[in-house]
Amino acid sequence: VCRKLALMLSKRLVLLNKKQGDEFQRIYGIDPRRVSYSALGVYESMRVLPVKTNREGNHNILFFGRISPYKGIEYLCEAMLKVHVAVPDAKLIIAGSGNLYFDYSKYKGLPFIQLQNRFIEMEDLATMLEECDLCACPYIDATQSGVVMSAFCFKKPVIATNVGGLPEMVDDGVTGIIVPPKDSDALANAIIELLANDIKRDNMKRNIEELYMHGEKSWPVIVNNYID
């Protein structure tokens, strides 16, 4: 009721992805003329956090955030079985609180999958982001994600699924790779592709910096859009 009242009384509404705009307008009966679109920028505040890195020689893949069924973590764990064969020093870190909703027993004890099932303090997250090579968002459902903007703050490429607004946030082949949801093989292939190609990862890092810190997806551009 409160949401519907707020939508009714607001002169203008701002959505953070365009893909779901038509669905939003249909569900809530919104006149398209009242809807504007913006985007999330990188979470720059994370740059001031202390980072205590003690990285080993591994290629680290990071999943972080609350553990929930829509996050698709089971597909990422399955993908790591294939990744480990192709890139033996690859290591997946799953960091976040929440109940494991799938059978994790076959992954428990594997040295290349590390589960930190706890609330992650921001300082710890900053260190994990600094130490990883890329982040993974294997979601089976989503609108947009602050995970992507946290990763981009540290110029880390993101492998994300083609759901919700994620393809608007992760430019396929430019700042990361987009794969189909619920597809462990596609996830594995994308991870292997980036871990095996240092030049490609470095190019993506530069693209993230240019687009999100200085270019068309930077906060100054977003702010001017809001003002307009």
Describe this structure in words.
This protein is of the alpha/beta class. 39% of the residues lie in helices and 15% in strands. It contains 9 helices and 8 strands. Strands 5-4-3-6-7-8 form a 6-stranded parallel sheet, sandwiched between helices. A two-stranded parallel ribbon has the order 1-2. Helix 3 packs across helix 7.
List the strand order in the largest sheet.
Answer: 5-4-3-6-7-8
Beta-strand fraction estimate: 5-15%
Sequence stretches where pLDDT stays below 50 over 5 or more residues: none
The rough form would be described as: globular
Structural class: alpha/beta
Task: Count helical runs.
Answer: 9
| Mean pLDDT, all residues | 93
* Radius of gyration using CA atoms only: 18 Å
Structural features:
8 strands; globular; 15% strand; 228 residues; alpha/beta
Topology:
Blueprint: H1 2-9, E1 13-15, H2 21-28, E2 35-37, E3 59-64, H3 73-86, E4 90-95, E5 113-116, H4 122-131, E6 134-137, H5 146-153, E7 158-161, H6 166-169, E8 176-179, H7 184-195, H8 198-214, H9 219-227
Parallel strand pairs: 1-2, 3-4, 3-6, 4-5, 6-7, 7-8
Helix pairs in contact: 3-7
